[in-house]
Amino acid sequence: MQENHAARPLQPGDRAPNVVLDAITRQGKVAIDDFRGQKPVLIGLFRGLHCPFCRRQIAAMAELTGALQEKGIDSLTVVNTPIERARLYFRYHPLPNLLAASDPERASHRAFGLPNLQFTEDENEWPRKVSMNTVMSMRIDMPGELPAPMDPMAASEFLDKADGYEITEDDKQMIATGHGQLVGEFLLDRDGVVRWCFTEVEEDGRHMFGGPAPREVMSAASNMAV
């Protein structure tokens, strides 16, 4: 099967491609086409579970599952983590009603047009390349979780320690090939057409390491005819 590869992040009005992945929280496969013609679905495409920011975004998305289901909208979380590692994580960190899938090859991210950002010494070409000076000048502000605004590397290390998250060989492999993978969330209608999205690509990376406000997601869900 030929792989889909969008040249840019999908936008409202674009038809989402089909992607077939290994399910984490149940047996078998899960595909975008499972929802097409059935129900709208919120698709969250995240980095591996090694990313503490993504772990928090996944939990935030899971918290909206019930409210979305009341509106007739399903949810699918995709992580760039090998299946057995992902199953082990969610076994010890269960999220009620979470439907998750494993995509260590990042096929879904390419299909939805999310770039794998390259870190460079001094070259910036957003959203393909970013210099380490630019990255280290960013400040992550997470009151209640971080003692003060921190650069992404320091914040990641602090959050991993706070979570007690230990990096495994599987995680190291994902970091080596997809440390710069940009992420996003896409709300598809029952025909598989994007009606709303939030990605790290937007606004020259202003949304990096953060996620949409729950009210923004629910507003988009309310505005979409089910």
UniProtKB/TrEMBL annotation:
<dbReference type="Pfam" id="PF00578">
    <property type="entry name" value="AhpC-TSA"/>
</dbReference>
<dbReference type="InterPro" id="IPR000866">
    <property type="entry name" value="AhpC/TSA"/>
</dbReference>
<dbReference type="InterPro" id="IPR036249">
    <property type="entry name" value="Thioredoxin-like_sf"/>
</dbReference>
<protein>
    <submittedName>
        <fullName>Peroxiredoxin</fullName>
    </submittedName>
</protein>
<dbReference type="InterPro" id="IPR013766">
    <property type="entry name" value="Thioredoxin_domain"/>
</dbReference>
<feature type="domain" description="Thioredoxin">
    <location>
        <begin position="10"/>
        <end position="164"/>
    </location>
</feature>
<dbReference type="GO" id="GO:0016209">
    <property type="term" value="F:antioxidant activity"/>
</dbReference>
<dbReference type="GO" id="GO:0016491">
    <property type="term" value="F:oxidoreductase activity"/>
</dbReference>
